[in-house]
């Protein structure tokens, strides 16, 4: 499994921004982030529908990661809703060195 860094902030057109032209994708992205795994930001990488090839290295979507972190904290899987708690859990699970 490939693990990418997560964007530090939401990109200018992140579907999780209320003013995003892509906000109509938010529910599908949320469903996918909670059932399939982390989502690559549409402003990075080359495997997306909006920007076919960005020339940037892939990064995980900040908006989708925030959804994951809040959800996993709410169900007690993460100690707190932070990137640090996420990284700690990945290390505990042997997914991150």
Quickly count the domains: 1
**Broad shape:** globular
Could you give the distance between the termini? 13 Å
Question: Structural class from helices and strands?
Answer: mainly alpha
Question: Could you give the count of β-strands?
Answer: 0
Radius of gyration over C-alpha positions, nearest whole angstrom: 13 Å
What helical percentage do the residues reach? 25-40%
How much of the residues is beta strand, in percent? under 5%
What are the low-pLDDT stretches, counting only 5+ consecutive residues below 50? none
Mean of residue pLDDT values: 90
Order of helices and strands: HHH
Tell me the number of helical segments per DSSP (H or I, 4 or more residues long): 3
Please describe the biggest sheet, giving its number of strands, its sense, and whether it closes into a barrel: none
Summarize the structure.
With 97 residues, the protein is mostly helical.
Describe this structure in words.
With about 100 residues, the protein is mainly α. It has one domain. Helices cover about 35% and strands about 0% of the residues. It contains three helices and no strands. Helix 1 crosses helix 2. The radius of gyration is 13 Å and the shape is globular. It starts with about 25 loop residues before the first helix and ends in a 5-residue tail after the last helix.
Fold blueprint:
Elements: H1 26-35, H2 62-74, H3 83-92
Helix pairs in contact: 1-2
List keywords for this structure.
97 residues; globular
């Amino acid at each position: 499994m490939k693990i990418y860094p997560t964007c530090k902030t939401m990109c200018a057109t992140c579907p999780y921004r209320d003013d995003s032209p892509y906000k109509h994708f938010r529910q599908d992205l949320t469903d996918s982030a909670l059932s399939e795994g982390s989502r690559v930001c549409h402003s990075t990488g080359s495997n997306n529908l909006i920007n076919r090839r960005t020339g940037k290295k892939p990064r995980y979507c900040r908006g989708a990661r925030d959804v994951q972190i809040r959800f996993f904290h709410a169900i007690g899987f993460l100690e707190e809703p932070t990137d640090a708690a996420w990284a700690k859990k990945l290390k505990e699970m042997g997914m991150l060195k």
